[in-house]
Amino acid sequence: DIQMTQSPSTLSASIGDRVTITCRASQSISSRLAWYQQKPGKAPNLLIYKASTLEDGVPSRFSGSGSGTEFTLTVSSLQPDDFATYYCQQYYTYSYTFGQGTKLEIK
Amino acid sequence: EVHLLESGGGLVQPGGSLRLSCAASGFTFSSYAMSWVRQAPGKGLEWVSSISGSGDNTYYADSVKGRFTISSDTSKSTLYLEMNTLSVDDTAVYYCAKDYPFGGVISGYFDYWGQGTLVTVSS
Fold this sequence. Notes:
By secondary structure, chain A is an all-beta fold. Chain A is built from no helices and eleven strands.
C-alpha cells in the first residue's frame, strides 16, 4: 500500500494566519490526491481533488499544490470556521489511503 | 440535494456479523460509484470498499478482504456492507460516501458523505 504522511500532526495558529500542511506519499501518485476537512462528530468534507482543483463551494482561501510525492494544502487567511482536522488521501491505486490527519488548533 | 443515510450499526460480539445499509437520494444512484470509509474512535480515516455504479466492479482494503462484501440495489438506491467474522479492530464509525462523478466508474475520492453509523465489536 502507498503510505501517506502528513506534517505537522498538530498546528496552532491564529485568525488571519497563513498556514500550510504537507502530505508526502511513499511513491509517486501523480496528481491523484484529495484533501478533506473534518470537524468533531461530523463527516469529512471534500476541499480539493486532483491535488489543486478546488471543489465547488469551497472558499478560495484554500489552495492545493504538488505532484508526484509531495503535496501541500494552504489556507491563506485563517477564519474561525477553519479550525478542524485535515486529511490528505491518495487515489492513485487501490487500496486508497489517507494521511494520519493534521489538527489545526486556535493559538 | 444529495442525502446519504446509514443504518445497521450496533454492538456485536467478536466473530459476529452485521449488515450496514446506506439509503441514497438526490442523485441517480446507478450512475455513480459508492464507497465505505471507516474511522475508529479517535483515529484517522480508512477506506474500506468501493463499488462501481453498475455493481460490476468491487474493491476491498486488505484488512477486510474475504470478510466484508459490498453490494448495491439500484432499484432501492441503497448501498450495503455485509460484515462477517468481526473483530475488535473493526470497531469504528462507518461512513457511506458517494464517489466524485466519473461516469459510474470508481474515481477514488468522495464528494458526499453520510453521517456515519457506529459499529462496536466487543464481548
